[in-house]
Amino acid sequence: MTKDNLIHQAGMSRRTFLQVTGAGLVTATALGATGLRARAEAYGKFTWISPRGTLEVLDDYPYWAAKKAGYFDGLDTDMQPGPSDGTATVKFVDVGQADMGFPSPGVFSFAIQNGMKLKSVFHMGARDTFSIAFRKGEGSNDLKKLEGKTILLGSAAWQSITDPLLAAQGVDIKKVKYVEAGWPTWGTALAGGQGDAALSWEGLRAEWIAKGLDFEYWLGVKNSKLPANTFVVRAADLEDPDKKAFLEKYLRGWAMGLEFGYQNPRAAVEAVFEQFPTLAKNLGPELGTTSILQQINVFRGDMDKRGGWGSHDMASWQGFFDEIHKIGQITNPVKAEDVCSNDLIPAANDFDKAKVKADADGVKLSEGFAALDVDKIKAHLFDSAVK
Fold first, then answer.
1. Closest by alpha carbon to 147, among 125, 169, 126, 129?
2. CA 109 from centre of chain
3. Listed residue (51, 37, 119) closest to 82, CA to CA
4. Strand 231-234 and strand 215-219: pairing?
5. How far apart are CA 47 and CA 53, in angstroms?
6. CA-CA distances (angstroms) from residue 31 to 18, 26, 36, 118, 148?
7. Angle CA(188)–CA(193)–CA(198) in degrees, nearest 5?
8. How far is CA 237 from the centre of its chain?
9. Triad 23, 330, 160: Cα angle to 5°
């Protein structure tokens, strides 16, 4: 790694944001009018954009399960991987090249900080999905020990994720260094002895094992009260009755896919594997099911206290916005209710849960998946946590 890769400051300035934008292949200026799709009524093809630069992951299993089951009911939907630049998922929505993005709260906050008129409408990550990976024997549950150390990131934009996570645990983030080790190589860099730790998340832990990357983790899902990734749209779309109705129907498909995965996680994995045979080959049934179970835990949260799939916990979001304002990640206070909305949640969850359960239970699993003991996998989901 060169010195140019080091990010020393705790916050990311507008200048840095624009530099990351320039490296991300697409900018609002570069797009111009030709990049914007005019819509005569509601949406044409509705485009969702990934925050990871790839779709060949299990993270989006609700979509693939719902699509296979016919839950999008004739809607013209599209999934795009986008560039690996961590801020692309909000930039594309802002300028009209995509209709919905899936940013982390930190990247969402940068969108707000940079004047993008976006709103969170479906909170996928009810629990904090993010974790800190360490080489075996080097981890700690006291993240203050990371002061003076170096954390590896796949994208410079991920500092917006890591800074508030560390600050909420009492870490002086000015004493932490970051290295942009690249996507998808930052985990390999950690295993190779570079840096002291790396950002990770639920689901990815299982995928890293498939690549021979065996780490121990400080788990946000166990230790953090911050929210995780969410679906954002242009705020103006919520003011258009036709677009709002479309969004409700589209998000109902995702909610049904989430319910399907909860009822039969193995069938949801198979739906993804059918879409991406290379992913199926790399992971296999057991690690694929492990990955999806990690994510179901994050996406479901404590459903007894939620208003359904996608519901925002405004107290959690307000705590996040207060934290990032305190550390200077945003310059002005943000009121959670101004940028997060539960208006679409009742309609999104208005579906026949018994039918979805019957659909999920009725799937005939392949031999490899049918042989798995799901309860046994659940019992060992957190074995890699720092002891």
1. 169
2. 14
3. 51
4. unpaired
5. 15
6. 15, 7, 8, 18, 41
7. 60
8. 22
9. 50
Match 């300028």 to its residue by tokens: 95
| Helices and strands counted in the chain (H then E) | 18, 11
Take residue 39 and report the two structure tokens written for it.
Answer: 């819509």
Q: What is the pLDDT of residues 285-315, one digit of tens each?
A: 999 999 999 999 999 999 999 999 999 999 9
Which contacts qualify for 335-343: CB closer than 8 Å, 24 or more apart?
A: 336/312, 339/108, 339/112, 339/118, 339/119, 339/120, 340/119, 340/120, 340/123, 340/230, 340/312, 340/314, 341/119, 341/120, 341/121, 341/238, 341/312, 342/307, 342/311, 342/312, 343/121, 343/238, 343/244
Q: Of 286, 263, 269, 272, which is closest to residue 357 (Cα–Cα)?
A: 263
pTM greater than 0.85 (yes/no): yes
Q: How confident is the model over 263-275, as pLDDT tens digits?
A: 999 999 999 999 9
Cα 45 from Cα 3, distance rounded (Å):
43
